[in-house]
Every structure is written in C-alpha cells, then in structure tokens.
Write a structure and sequence with these properties.
About 80% of the residues lie in helices and about 0% in strands. It is built from ten helices and no strands. The longest helix is centred in the middle third of the chain and has 53 residues. Helix 1 packs across helix 3 and helix 6 packs antiparallel against helix 7.
Length: about 290
C-alpha cells in the first residue's frame, strides 16, 4: 500500500522531489533500516504531495467552515491552521522512519534470543547456513527476525550472493544492535573456520540472560504500576465519588449535574484511564509475555 502510494506521489511531483534529495540524505539509511519499500526520491515526493494535499484541503474546508461560523477571525484562523497542519504532516512524515526503526529494533530484541536458539539447533545438525536462514524465514513466529532471514536467503539463493556478503548487507541495514552483532559474529565464525554451532549457542545463552534480566526488571516495574493503578483508579474513583457528593451540598450545582459528572467519570473516565494503563504495560513488557 505504502509502496503504491509513494510511486503515485513520485509520478505527480517527482521532478520537484529530486531537487531536495541532497537535503534529506540522512533519510536514505533510515528507510532501509525501517524496511520502508520506497526509494529516497519517492519518499520525499510522498512528503511533498501529502503536505500539499493537506494544505489545499484544509485551506478550502477550514476557511469556508470557520468563515461562516466566525466571520473574518474564522477566515484568519482557517489560514493559520492550513499552514500548521501541512507543516505537522511534513514533520510527522520525516520522523516516521525513525519511529519505525525503534519499533523494529524492539521487536527484534524480543524475539532474537529464541531465534538464535533455533538457529543454533539447526547448525548443530550440520545444516548449511543457507538452509538455516531458509528455515528461519518459514517460521513466522519470530516476526522481524524471520523477515530479515528471508532477505538473506533471497540474496543467497535468488541473487547468487555469497553468504559472507549477504550477512554483511544484513548487518548494515539492521535497526537492532544485537542482531547486527550477531550477523558480524556469524560472518567472522564462518570466514575464520570457527564452529558456528558453538558461536550460536554461546550467543543464544547471552541473549537469553539479557531477556531474563529484562523480565525481572519488568516484574519490579509492574508491581509499582499495580500500586499506582490501585491508588489512582480504584481509590481515586471512590474518593472522587464521595467528595463530589459532599461538595454538592456546599455549591449551587444541582444534584442532577453532580450525578452526571459521576456517571461520566465512572463510565468514561475510568475505562479511558484503564485502557491507557493497559497500553503502557503492553509497551513496557518484553516480547513473549504481552
């Protein structure tokens, strides 16, 4: 989907996008690490076309609607928002690859200990490295690691690249330092005649220990978060209900209004806070226990 949209944008404004390639050179390696299927000129064209479309659309819609509602001040506000929104789109599109890189690195870090253990098992049976990565690519439960294994397998089996070069290319596009170190280590073990089985077993043990430390750290953080949840959500809701009932006798607010506030707090505010808490816990949890 993104690839088709980027290609469409390049067809529309590609001539202008080429003039800005030198200003966005830092995006080129980010696009590769983020696994975004678009070249640098195509991505710049997508940034420009999307921002221009948002500007034209917001200028027409906001200026028209706000002018009718607020007159001249609404027209000025519409123009201001029509400038702010495309700028925000440009900034968001520019930062998008770096956000994806962090997400991919986190996913790779979560699944890498188990993927490395799987590769060590295959290497221990005498399986060639090309077959190891082909089998790894077929095991989709390792997520981003399986995707990278598929790329390595394609480089070797489809494009005829030697395994050492394929591992070097994989290391260069890796968003994860752990995976990058693994690729360079495998390349060194292969070119120096070392035991791939021993290397992968040692690396899987190291990665698994790191994974265990992260789980222990998360369990401590989770205990603190549970205490915060009990204090803020459960105790806080009880205190709010009691205080609002007491305050109604000292203010001019009607009882119906107080009840409405309590209902909104209980059936809207409480689920929102609980949902935010769940998302925060899921974001902090290491992969495999989410």
């Amino acid at each position: 989907m993104l690839e088709k949209y980027a290609s469409f944008c390049y067809d529309q404004v590609g001539v202008y996008a080429l003039e800005f390639v030198d200003y966005f050179k830092d995006l080129r390696p980010q696009l590769s690490k983020a696994d975004i299927p678009a070249s640098l000129p195509e991505y710049i064209a997508m940034m420009m076309f999307t921002a221009a479309a948002v500007f034209v659309g917001s200028l027409f819609i906001l200026c028209t609607v706000l002018s009718i509602m607020m007159g001249l001040s609404g027209f000025i506000l519409g123009i201001t928002l029509s400038i702010v929104l495309p700028t925000a789109v440009l900034v968001a599109t520019y930062l998008y690859p770096s956000i994806v890189i962090k997400q991919r690195a986190s996913k790779i870090r979560d699944s890498l200990p188990f993927a490395t253990m799987y590769m060590a098992t295959l290497a221990g049976t005498g399986t060639s490295m090309s077959e190891v990565f082909r089998n790894m690519a077929e095991v989709k439960q390792y997520g981003e690691v399986s995707k990278e294994a598929e790329k390595i397998s394609k480089d070797v089996e489809t494009f005829g690249m030697d395994m050492s070069k394929a591992l070097q290319r994989a290391a260069e596009r890796m968003p994860s330092e752990n995976f990058k170190d693994l690729m360079w280590g495998m390349n060194h073990a292969m070119t120096s005649g070392g035991s791939m089985k021993s290397f992968l077993q040692e690396r899987s043990q190291t990665l698994m220990k790191d994974y265990q430390r992260r789980i222990e750290s998360f369990s401590e953080q989770l205990s603190l978060l549970v205490e915060m949840y009990i204090t803020v959500v459960i105790v806080g809701s009880i205190v709010f209900t009691s205080m609002s009932a007491v305050m109604s006798s000292f203010t001019s607010m009607s009882g119906e209004f107080i009840v409405l506030i309590q209902i909104l707090a209980m059936f809207v505010g409480l689920p929102l806070v609980s949902g935010m808490f769940i998302l925060m816990v899921r974001g902090m949890a290491p992969g495999g226990i989410r």
